[in-house]
């Protein structure tokens, strides 16, 4: 199916994006303004910093997360908070030429980089990706639209996590899965200490060489204010998911929630 026919009907901003070329994501989204500014500011260095700060491991965690989503050939899938598109590109490989990938973010700067990467690393199946500017808390899709959903390092940054889970539940088809990768808010003091040490002594100093120390200091608070694996499972069940399992990965520093509608 042509990418231009991806998931209609949708709201006006996403409709504009889906009815023309991949460069038409410009309708601004008004929500969580501060975070929107933050992610736009870090967009130019985001990919490079991820590689440096995780020693390339984020690529492994993202592959695991996509595998957990259960996406397969021909599926219609969605990557939320897609940023520069790492998970969307992986999903695109999974669903192939006859599948469709919707990739949504509220930062036009991140989407611009994603679109550039789509051209740069051209692959036939990448034509199935549609970049959309939109709010993960108010998804511009009809109910029961997707065979699988991924979200990498997005949930922690959303101001209303329950609403986000409700939206994922709504747009997933019954029986389908969402796979949500993020930092793990560990219940182990040792893991928490290592995480805090790494942020203070590696992440922030490296980010400061790009003039982004304040932006990356936000990481520690956002993990602190996030939910533990058990709390995420409980939240998922409370919004209706029939199954919810949180896996600790990366030595407990990261976590991946897998939920089934
Ligand atoms: C840490 S980045 C993760 C990017 C990508 N998923 C990855 O794993 O590399 C978080 C992304 O979430 C996006 N985001 C945050 N809140 C959002 C919202 N309410 N709606 C849509 N996107 C949002 C930001 O713009 C940013 O691109």
Primary descriptors:
single chain, 261 residues, alpha/beta, Rossmann fold, seven-stranded mixed sheet, 19% strand, globular, disordered N terminus, binds S-adenosylmethionine, chloroplast, 2-phytyl-1,4-beta-naphthoquinone methyltransferase, chloroplastic, EC 2.1.1.329, methyltransferase
SSE layout and pairing:
Elements: H1 12-18, H2 33-54, H3 57-69, E1 76-80, H4 86-95, E2 100-105, H5 108-120, E3 129-133, E4 146-152, H6 161-171, E5 172-183, H7 189-208, H8 213-224, H9 229-238, E6 243-249, E7 254-260
Parallel strand pairs: 1-2, 1-4, 2-3, 4-5
Antiparallel strand pairs: 5-7, 6-7
Bound molecules: S-adenosylmethionine.
Structural summary, described in words:
The chain has one domain: Vaccinia Virus protein VP39 (Rossmann fold, 3-Layer(aba) Sandwich). It has nine helices and seven strands; from the N terminus they run αααβαβαββαβαααββ. The chain has helices spanning 12-18, 33-54, 57-69, 86-95, 108-120, 161-171, 189-208, 213-224, 229-238, and strands at residues 76-80, 100-105, 129-133, 146-152, 172-183, 243-249, 254-260. Strands 3-2-1-4-5-7-6 form a seven-stranded mixed sheet, sandwiched between helices. Strand 1 (76-80), helix 4 (86-95) and strand 2 (100-105) form a beta-alpha-beta unit. Residues 1-30 have low confidence and may be disordered. The structure holds S-adenosylmethionine. S-adenosylmethionine (SAM) is lined by residues 31-32, 35, 39, 81-83, 86-87, 105-107, 110, 135-137, 152-154, 157-158. Involved in the biosynthesis of phylloquinone (vitamin K1). Methyltransferase required for the conversion of 2-phytyl-1,4-beta-naphthoquinol to phylloquinol. Keywords: Chloroplast, Methyltransferase, Plastid, S-adenosyl-L-methionine, Signal, Transferase.
